[in-house]
Design goal:
Elements lengths: L3 H18 L3 H30 L2 H13 L5 H14 L7 H25 L4 H18 L3 H7 L6 H16 L4 H7 L1 H10 L3 H14 L6 H18 L20 H4 L2
Helix pairs in contact: 2-3, 3-4, 4-5, 4-6, 4-10, 5-6, 6-8, 10-11, 11-12
């Protein structure tokens, strides 16, 4: 039985529903993304894996961006690919100022990708801006000389200023004035995404950054409790099996991480 006519009729019915539902260009683009996703995703994933296997961070990042265009709501995926390119995409043989300059270029590319994602999915913008602040701070910790280059650039400013601008935007997008504090509690989500991408070292770096920021939590008792929790999580993820995984099972804040803590 020839199913082509049925498929064609179905396609036109689908397009008609899209048009009658709300014929805005943005909506049509979203419908198009959803419609083509089953056909494009396998090829995009395969292309990305090939780029990763080839050891070319720039090519992998470019292919990751193509993949993420079909998955605009995948906030964690955007954060992970931006993180890995900004923090781990450098040439290990590079040294000195050229190494720092390359790190600045990668950081700007990673931030640009996340900013573009904010424009495509404004409902996810608060989280994306929060991840941008994290990535800036950790990139500077990871790469000596980067802070000086960023500070010397009049259009950027000191790393703390850049991160603060992103957090201010996150607060504006979310309507909450507590984003700076709440991001400390979002760490398990980003760590889980990094672990899913087999980046244990990256997850440990994120935990270290959050542990250092627990003092910023306004409630001292809550801050101390979360500090202790994150320290135990870090020990467990680093391979310390004297930390009982059952310790974390009832903490809803750690749900994204639980599969990696019980291993």
């Amino acid at each position: 039985m020839n199913r082509l006519p049925i498929l064609i009729v179905g396609l036109f019915c689908w397009l008609g529903a899209a048009w009658l539902g709300n014929p805005k260009m943005g909506n049509l683009q979203q419908w198009a993304i959803v419609a083509t996703r089953p056909f494009t995703l396998p090829f995009l994933w395969r292309s990305l894996r090939q780029a990763v296997d080839s050891g070319d961070p720039a090519e992998a990042f470019a292919r990751a961006q193509a993949l993420l265009l079909t998955l605009p709501d995948w906030t964690d995926g955007h954060a992970v690919f931006a993180w890995r390119y900004a923090i781990e995409g450098g040439n290990p043989l590079a040294t000195g100022r050229s190494r720092a300059a390359a790190a600045k270029t990668r950081l700007q590319a990673a931030i640009a990708m996340l900013q573009a994602a904010c424009e495509r999915t404004p409902n996810k913008a608060a989280d994306l801006y929060t991840w941008m602040a994290f990535i800036v701070e950790l990139a500077v910790q990871h790469e000596p000389g980067l802070a000086e280059l960023l500070t010397a650039d009049a259009g950027l400013g000191a790393p703390a200023q850049i991160a603060d601008r992103f957090l201010a935007k996150a607060e504006q997008q979310s309507g909450r004035a507590s984003v700076r504090e709440q991001r400390i509690f979002l760490v398990p989500q980003l760590c889980a995404a990094l672990l899913q991408a087999a980046d244990r070292n990256g997850a440990l770096q994120v935990l270290d950054a959050a542990i250092g920021r627990c003092a910023e939590i306004r409630d001292p008792q809550l801050g101390q409790e979360w500090l202790t929790t994150l320290q135990l999580v870090r020990r467990r993820l680093a391979g310390d099996r004297t930390v009982d995984a059952a310790t974390f099972s009832d903490d809803q804040r750690l749900q994204p991480l639980l599969p990696y803590l019980v291993r």
